[in-house]
Amino acid sequence: MKIFRLKANPLTYSCNSYLLLGDWNTLDDVNTIIDTGSDSSIINEIERINTGLGKKPVDLVILTHNHFDHIGGLKEVISNYQPKVIAAAKIENIEHKNVRHGEEIRLADRWCTLYSTPGHSSDSICIFSPADGILFSGDTTLQINTPGGAFTREYLESLKLLSKLEIKTIYPGHGDPITYKPVEMIRNTLKIVKDSQII
Known about the structure:
By secondary structure, the chain is α/β, with parallel strands linked by helices.
């Protein structure tokens, strides 16, 4: 699986958008975007990438949650590529398939699992590729270093789930990929949350 981090408009607050392609760009690969960012700026980036001869540049869009900086460019992506859309919450005037927790789905040339991970928002999801140990985490908070605070039971359960995965690299909704001991980081966060107020 090839992962392209698409550049957003530097003048607009946005998230990381990722384009996933198969290693060989075969016809069976499912060209996938994870989050569209806040505007249409990723379209220009997609057009510069070889997405496969005779293939749609984008077959599928998965939204990690419905905050504007992650879905603002969705209508433009749909207008240009007519992809299927998967999301965990209702998106106004957009036809989409709802996420089923634990559902396995083909992205690029890999089978990945979709997990409901409420915490940052009620509709937050993470996407895991077990073959590569890659987690696309959206805005799910995976690093907390300071004890104290209050956290929801749903967020605690999300951390428990993620702490059991064999993660090698995390591609977050904001910031650079995390490659240094990601599982240890999540387990440390889980310990801090367990020792905090659960509401």
